[in-house]
Amino acid sequence: MTLVLLFGSFFVLLLLNVPVAAAMGLATFIGIRMEDFSITSFANLMYASMSKSVLLAIPFFILAGVLMDYAGISRRLIRFSQVCVGHLRGGMAIVVVLVSCFFAAISGSGPATVAALGGILIPAMAQAGYNKNMSASLVAASGGIGIIIPPSIAFVIFAMLAEVSVGNLFMCGIVPGLVMGLAYCLAAFWSMRRDGTGVIRQERASVRECWLAFKDAVWGLLTPIIILGGIYGGIFTPTEASGVAVVYGLVVGLFIHREIKFRDLWRMFVDSAVTSAVVMFILGCAGVFGWLLVTTGGAEELSASFMRLSTNPYVILLLINIVFVIAGCFMEANSAYCIFLPILLPILGEIGYNPYAFGVFMVSSFAVGMITPPVGVNLFVACNVAKISMKDICSKVAPFVVAGFIAVFLFTYVPEITLFLPRWMGLKV
Length: 429
Known about the structure:
- By secondary structure, the chain is mostly helical.
- The protein has one domain (about 55-425).
- Helix content is about 80%, strand content about 0%.
- The protein contains 21 helices and no strands.
- The longest helix is centred in the middle third of the chain and has 31 residues, at about 265-295.
- The radius of gyration is 21 Å and the shape is globular.
- The two termini are about 40 Å apart.
């Protein structure tokens, strides 16, 4: 009865357009009262869910992303990519994916990547002769790479909930992020060929222009090297790396590029604090939701029901993929992890699936969900940036959704794609 009430009230509140965090909190509060737990337990559990030291990385990585954006890093990365591959047919499509991969290592967030890059890249692609709707679809899809390539806020949350190493999970995400970027490039080329889009090629840049663009972008290119190199070199932990990223962003913005003024810092800190507060509130409510699922036996009951559908591991993984993509259309990913992990981790133990591979295909599935119509969050951000309707972007997003599905199925059924790099580096995954 509690399980039905918990999920029933949650989805009813979502249909009434109540924000996800509030809907989850209210549904959990109702469940706690139904089980006769103390009201104070709600606050205590919520605090416990947010007070884990590993979660300190979230506000720091969010602030680092804001600092890097204000410092003009994204603009310089775009310019460098343009001079390197912009002269090729479909070069701007490659630029979008390349810059998204680099910026993913700064922002750690899908919607943030779309918002930061879309305002520059979508008009640039339209000016180069690309279909505007296709350009917005590509930017929305590539933005999803932001939650796959490390440092990823989604990986931090997954590692905390699944009790695995954040650093190892970061390493697991590198190759899948690049594979998904390649899949989106191929989808863009297919769209251009199908539509017969006339693309204006820019002139090949000289060696001097490439060198100057590289020198201008080098501080942005160094960001993932410093963060990941420091983690795997044993210099600092992933949580400490987030603090290093903030200091690095401040130094680059204030003293190297000089595009951040001291008077801007207050606004940037407030923006980061608001975004961080939203994420942490969601995690707090979702943590209580997950605790109630486990305590009342609901998670075990749902896991058993799931296993009764099939005993074939491949079918189970397919069903999980479908659930994740659908959930990614309707729910904020960070809260969804807290709901689904208590249910699915026992199932993965039953079929012997690697938790690191599971983390990557779970996050990747949500990345595809972000661009799956009609309510993929990245689509809304791209529509807002490009000033087009949801109907316009949905008319061109299908190839990218298909490409994303294919990539996710590869990660799911060929986990060696995810695991070979960390194992090659001697990490235990």
